[in-house]
Write a structure and sequence with these properties.
heterodimer, A: alpha+beta, five-stranded mixed sheet, elongated, B: 401 residues, two-stranded antiparallel ribbon, globular
Chain lengths: 161, 401
Amino acid sequence: MKCLILNNLYLGLVLETSGFSKLSLIFKIFIIAVIYLIIAFALRIMYKDMKSGDKKRVKIKRTFGLEVVDGGMNNMVRKGSVIPIDREVTIGRKEDNTVVLAEEYISGHHARIYMKNNNYIFEDLNSTNGTIVNGQKIQEKVYIRPGDKIEIGTIVFKVIG
Amino acid sequence: MDSIKEEKRLLRVTYLFCIISFFNIFLIKTPFDNVALIIGGIICILMGYSNFIVRRFFPDGDKYILIFACILSNIGMVMIYRLKPSDAIKQIIFFVVGIVIFILIVVILPELKKYVKFRYIFLVLTLVFISMPTLLGAADVNGSQNWVHFGGFSFQPSEFAKLFLIAYLASAFSKYKNFKQLIEPAFIVMVSLGFMVLQKDLGSALIFFAISVTMLYICTGKFKYVLICLLLFSAGAFISYKLFGHVRLRVMIWQDPWPYKTNQSYQVVQSMYSIAWGGLFGTGLGLGYPGFVPINDSDFIFASISEEMGVLMGFAIMILYFLLFYRCMRAALFAEDKFSRLLAVGYSAMIGAQVLVIVGGVTNMIPLTGITLPLVSYGGTSMIITFMALGILQKISEGGR
């Protein structure tokens, strides 16, 4: 214990000899000011965040969509029409999908396209007949880029963007 | 666009804080300590680069979790450098490892939903880590047996157990339908608490309990379960008070530390002197005597910071933790599935509980138990574990889609 105290007094003396150590008296004010500035900025951001409510995504500048290349056997969709993709698009036979394609090879909830970290992801929702992207049957999900060819049932889409 | 600008402004002020505080340390030493400036620069670059990666490649996630974590680690490193420069260099290595782990988790980990089915793996890992010190016969470090040594390498398994326990509880609670599903997790929690008390690691026991109760309440929404837990906890606390000497000692010190200030309660009394001596604005870096406080760079770092940088800095740390906690809970709000939500709640509760327990401890508001102040304290295990938890939270904040 004594050793500890002596050690500390020694340390204190060494520090005392430095002529600049008194500057700490000024610096401590600056340090506290800066940390509260950080808190103030952070609180401001939090406040704005709370006001805007729901998680607002950054607006997407480029357009992204699916162009119909082949309308399929029932000619459900016209060739050349474009399905724009904003944040999320679901494809399937049932009425509650964003894009309803009534074709017998398409499952009730067939697929979902969504955006994550500036990339678009195509997710196959365990459909019966699957989805073929660029000639390959996909497992669960893949990243899609402009130019990719997506086959759902007999309908063929091309990714444009 | 606007939010990115504000975020950059926040980061710039953080760099300013880092530079000012390390410049201060540079000045107080004779001769001038160039290493302090180099370290300050390194920390700035690290913070900038890691935030750049998160902002550039993962814009859907929460960017503020990492910023707050960096500010808190920065405060810690300033204080550790002032106290023990050699430890500060190790701490920076831990900080780097922590950030690398954080980014790796965000990059590599697939969607968290898939981990629900690893319930029993989590269970086994929890029990392995929690029983490790008891079974391997760990040595006493500062009065508790919670360290395990492998060659020259030592770590606290209870910290890892905490991570796995939360994962296990999240996966078990996500299957909750009625009371029956709660029996197994309750049993596991009790076993863990028992091991903690045996290892004299009361702080961790308290945190384990706090996390479990929080997750239980979030999952079931029934207050009566919380009440039952509290009753059981009081019973357990009473029994361990009667059975174990070290529990009685802690409570005795807590009730009245002054008569034993030269021996049993030396730590907490010195810590209180230290905080009081600093006052509102502190003594200034290098002008206080934090050397009187034992373990001043780990468990008692809050006391050292309050002495040299003022109670105002202590408040600031608490506010920053609150903001970090808020961001973490926000990730839980936007999580899609129950497992991710419970996981997020568990990890945020872990950080929050740890802060309350140790800050309450060093100010003698609650019985003192030796645990680290996450991110601020010196300690590799604590740093890495906290960054792992934050990485998972960051992943959850991206949202399931």
